[in-house]
Amino acid sequence: MKKHIKEYIMITVGYIILALAIKFFLAPNKIAGGGVTGIAIIINHLIPSFSVGSLMLIMNIILFIVGFIAIGGKFGAKTIYASLGLSGLISLLDKYISPEVALTHDLLLATLFGTFLSGIGMGIVFNANASTGGTDILAKILNKFIHLDIGKSLLIVDFVVAVAAGLTFSPEIGMYGLLSVILNGITIDTVIEGMNTCKAIIVMSSKNDLINKYIIEELDRGCTLFEGKGAYSGSKIDVLYTILDRKEFIKLRNYIREIDKKAFITVSEAHEVLGEGFKDIVED
């Protein structure tokens, strides 16, 4: 229960960041970097009486219905919450803040900051095993009926939206939209990797029994012992392997310094760790 509450809090934080990026950077500058957001920005330009938030809400509901008919209800409560929460928040902002309000009207700054913030927001949402819906559903439909990879399907949909923006507004804005699509993907990947990065640690020490006990009892983590043999000395030694987050690794390093200054430690980055004590292998 506690885990689910934390995930919903993270999803809320994520879509709030995304909503602010859309409202104050992307939408007022007509930067349609793909997705339902980009489609809503284009339609809003053609039919100003419909706000970006309202259009996103309508399109997401339609896409959920179409997706349910075409591929079944494989969305999950978190994705529905994130999608409708984002659309609703932007609708609320549109109601009280003029659509023309922007923190900058410089297209390059708006693209960079808007995409950077939206990538952070989407990365947080994705990391909580949810998505903001929208063109993700179209990608899944393409995947089912023409067997196109979901990643490629998303890229095609976003590319089409950016080209449509170029035809609707100007080639320059269309190119900024394409730049936004590319930067958004990079930012999302970076955020997800950063949130899930742990330390993979190998320790060779004469005090591995104490280190093993410290990891299990003090850090509440597991570890594995291998029997090794020195190539030069021929002597046998236990090799300890464990995965810890950054804070836990610092504690372990300080502990090893206290009990065995001759210990040999190697540390590498583990960009994603799945299983007991970390992120679930099976998504909820």
TrEMBL record:
Its main location: membrane. Keywords: Cell membrane, Membrane, Transmembrane, Transmembrane helix. It comes from the Bacteria. Residues 221-275 form the DUF2179 domain. One of its GO terms (cellular component) is plasma membrane. The chain crosses the membrane at residues 7-26, 46-72, 109-129, 150-167, 173-192. It is a multi-pass membrane protein. InterPro entries: DUF2179 (IPR019264), N-reg_PII/ATP_PRibTrfase_C (IPR015867), UPF0750_membrane (IPR051461), YitT (IPR003740). It is found in: Cell membrane. This is DUF2179 domain-containing protein. It comes from Clostridium bovifaecis. The lineage of its organism: Bacteria, Bacillati, Bacillota, Clostridia, Eubacteriales.
